[in-house]
Design brief:
Elements (H helix, E strand, L loop, with lengths): L3 H27 L4 H11 L41 H4 L7 H9 L1 H4 L13 H13 L14
Helix pairs in contact: 2-6, 4-6
This protein binds heme C (HEC).
The site of heme C (HEC) has 29 residues, from helix 3 and helix 4.
Length: 151
Amino acid sequence: MISQPALTRLVVRNLAFLAAFALLGSTAVLAAGNADRGKQKFKATCEVCHFALRGATRNDELTKIGPNLYGVVGRAAGTHKGFRYSAAMKSSGITWTEAELRRYILAPQQVIPNVRMSFPGVGNAQDIDDLVAYLATRRHTGSPGTQSAAP
Ligand code: HEC
């Protein structure tokens, strides 16, 4: 029969193994942007000012404090109809590739000085990847990084 302390050691070791395994598992999942998590993050962080919705007949129906971000990946900055952008945004010359979105979400004011988006940026790299993965799903059909015509 196995002694009590030996049993405890065994259980502890297995638990440690399981914990390490769980950690590894989540790291693997965390390696790329996760659109589902990005959606939650968007709701919690961006949705107070932005929709990312398709479907209204006029763009301004979907405008909050910030422009509608539906289809933002591939779009030139400051060009969504029905939203009055700052001069800084309109003249930024940026096209919202996923890489540019990452830079911007990290530090909006540094990427576009005088931008009117009162938001300090997202500090966590994984959250940024998740957000961008989510935004990339908010688009008409087409391959990632491109913008197809609206059906
Ligand atoms: C406090 C309100 C507010 C919050 C919170 C906010 N934004 Fe904005 N966002 C704005 C405003 C206002 C603009 C337009 C800025 C301008 O014209 O200078 C903007 C512009 C943008 C643009 C440029 C869009 C375009 O059409 O060129 C992107 C991309 C963007 N926001 C992403 C985000 C993301 C992602 C989050 C969440 C992590 C977020 N924003 C959070 C208010 C906000």
